[in-house]
Design goal:
By secondary structure, the chain is α+β, with helices and mostly antiparallel strands. Helix content is 42%, strand content 17%. The strands form two sheets. The protein has a six-stranded antiparallel β-sheet, covered by helices on one side. Helix 2 packs antiparallel against helix 3, helix 7 crosses helix 9 and helix 7 packs parallel to helix 10. It is globular. It starts with 15 loop residues before the first strand and ends with a helix. GO terms for molecular function: DNA-binding transcription factor activity; sequence-specific DNA binding. It holds the Pfam family Cupin_2. Keywords: DNA-binding, Transcription, Transcription regulation.
Length: 288
Amino acid sequence: MPVVLEKNVGSQQESVTVLSLKENFFDPNWHFHPHYQLFTVLEGTGTRFIGDSIQYFEPGDTVFLGPNLPHLWRSDKIYFENNSELKTHGIVLYFTEDFLGKDFFGKFEMAGLKVFLENSNRGMVWSGKTQGLIVEKLLELVNIKGFKRILSLLDLLHFLSQSKDYQFITNENYTNLHKLSETERMQKVYEYVSKNFKESIKLGDIAEKVNMSEAAFCRYFKKRTNRSFVDFVNEIRVGNACKLLSQNKMNVSEICYDSGFNTISNFNFHFKKIVGKTPSEYARELKN
């Protein structure tokens, strides 16, 4: 699989790029780019990696990312199977900070927008009425060209800068420390864990895959992701459990083992540590 860390996403002709993405699965490459990105999932499920954040995604997931924030929407394993008829659909908007000129957002009148854009360096996930409005606007922007697209984008950014319907995605102290030389290494880690989290994952196996000793890999991974490798695996497993709980087709015990945990007590412990409530409490809240 080709590995893309720095991704060329901008249009040569347009200062704002809007794409309707319909594929068998979302781009499986972990990457970053110098553009701001507004993205919503219309169809598809999987795991979203942004900076040091790992979250399950489903239709409606809507985020705004600042420049050079590493990200990956990894579709569920079933999307990659040869006989899969599942599809994904998302709408993405890209623009650079200087798309209206180098100093545009430095003007006095743009102070509110400038603060908003600075906040996006941590990534923002939107909810409530704001999330719905973003989806509507993105659907419109796909079919708008030229000057009207610019006006519509500025109006949307102004609205978002006034809204409180968001949560930051990365931790406050997150910094992108990844280098081009590390692209293949991190891609292998994400791919391996995404494919094998339901099985027993041994530290030695993943360290060998990236040609490092276990101790060196542990130090490297902790420095780049702000978490241990074990915590990383457990977060992916809990994300899968959250997805299954929302589908309401399996009981907690079945979900425990399907997500890669060996015992109910271990499952409950890690689920509460990550989510803040037990699986049963989480499931009850979903029904209310």
